[in-house]
Amino acid sequence: MTAIVSAENLTVAYDDFLALDAVSIDVAPGESFGLVGESGSGKSTLLRAVAGLSPVASGRIMLDGKPLDAKRRDKAFYRQVQMVFQDPYGSLHPRQTVDRLLQEPLAVHGIAGAEKRILRALDEVGLGSSFRFRYSHQLSGGQRQRIAIARALIIEPQIMLLDEPTSALDASVQAEVLNLLEQVRRDRKLTYIMVSHDLGVVTHMCERLAVMKGGKVVERLSSADLVAGRLKEDYTKNLMVASKGFVRAASMA
Amino acid sequence: MSTMLTVDDLRVSFPTRTGVIEAVRGVSFTLGRERLGIVGESGSGKSQTGRAIMGLTPAHAKISAKTLNFDGIDLLTAPPKVRRNLRGSRVAMILQDPKYSLNPVMSIGRQIVETLRTHENVSKREARDRAIAMLEAVQIRDAGRVFDLHPHEVSGGMGQRAMIAMMLIAGPELLVADEPTSALDVTVQLEVLGILDKLVAERGMGLIFISHDLRLVSSFCDRVIVMYAGKIVEELAASDLGNAKHPYTQGLLNCMPTLGTDRHPLPVLDRQPEWAL
Fold it and tell me: Which of A44, A103, B121, B182 has a CA that sits 20 to 30 A from residue B248's CA?
């Protein structure tokens, strides 16, 4: 398998604390890869390390077979890799209109034809051109997350890093955003790396996933294995139980 | 089962510059010593219903009801002093995010003791002992140490347990839990729910559990009210969820991706304008 993104023995340290402890993953082109685990397991840190937002202590990240610089990422990298963050309330500039928000990446990368691209991007995420001159506070959580996705897609990246893209949304809106993400991936043949604590969401979106705990990958498996219950680690089994919801009998222990 | 809380035709509206926003539009239900779930999307008025019962509606909002009665006390006409005495001692509320709803500059123990000493005349010594006992009841190990910690020094799950301890220490009869576990990890979520479930059962409290997760609520409650656009669209027994009639309830049930079902794309809610009428 030729990986489009891979991490080799990646370690991220904050002082003495190892947020990531020699983690390796490989993501194939066109694949959707999931990272699951509880808070503090390092799943977001891994994603941020790929995006160049975490201080990498050792190990390396390869993109298209070429190692990336540990500290700096060039423009070409961001042209290829874009990230969508968890909180749609925090990731959009409150004083900028949607139009301004979507122009920014185009200006940064010197891409011409902003007018047409903005309209197409809005259309693609299911918001009409009437949303173009609104501010983010005039939008609902689901609409904001669509704008965040549009902003990532507008420069036509190949790889999307999704950090809990739906965990701040209502269940009903989550379904709409997940469908949107699946559709753009199909249309544009994108590669996804997706972080979530919800096993249901990850198995729905991803073919393969890695379960993380305490900065390490404890288990790698395919979604089919997970659904069939072919699990090796107790920790994954716990997550599996938790995702099935509250059961009164279990709580009486 | 005796009725503890009666809500009849509750309405909450917010006057704004661009017109009146009606958040709750005629909600009616009764509650005994049972677990009632209120489910709906953001903006459906579920939290405002809970807040109206607590008396935490913002001052500029207009609130009206035919009846809003807690154990013989008319909550709408009760003077502020009566409501203050009720809040915390007989009705209590657990909020969503412990990061924002605990006082960051007070130790956890002092916050719990404050609640207790506001409502009961107990010595400092006894208050401390009872607070530690309560922290132990919410399964915090090493409660004596946690008593002196500040909220930023504990994890989200532990903060939420501390908040539950704070809300239960004065022995309320009615507990309103507004998304008590939404800010927590899946694994911690179940632990906190288990603790809440056990304490509510042991103490025979009435519980109003507000959430947007229909499946979670139905596994936790006896009865579920589904709200849409400020109104109740359906009320059913939790065990009866499979027979939900309203398309909105069915939509909420079906839109979650679950393990072992392969549905691409996921079914989404097809909102009908007549639901909001």
Answer: B182
Cα B18–chain centre separation: 30
Q: Class assignment of domain A5-93+158-246?
A: alpha beta
Span B44-57, pLDDT tens digits: 899 999 999 999 99
Q: Which of B194, B185, B106, B186 lies closest to B151, judged by CA?
A: B106
Chain A contact for B156 (CB, 8 A cutoff): yes
Mutation target to probe the A interface, by most A beta carbons within 10 A, among B154, B214, B259 is B259
Scanning the structure block, which residue is given the tokens 């006992």? Answer: B133
CA distance B189 to B212: 14
Q: Between residues 19 and 38 of chain A, which touch chain B (CB distance below 8 Å)?
A: 38
DSSP A148-163: HHHHHHTT--SEEEEE
Residue spans of beta strands (DSSP E) within chain B = 5-16, 19-31, 35-39, 62-64, 67-70, 73-74, 91-94, 174-178, 206-211, 223-228, 231-237
B-chain CB neighbours of A182 within 8 Å are 264-265
A250 touches chain B (CB under 8 A): yes
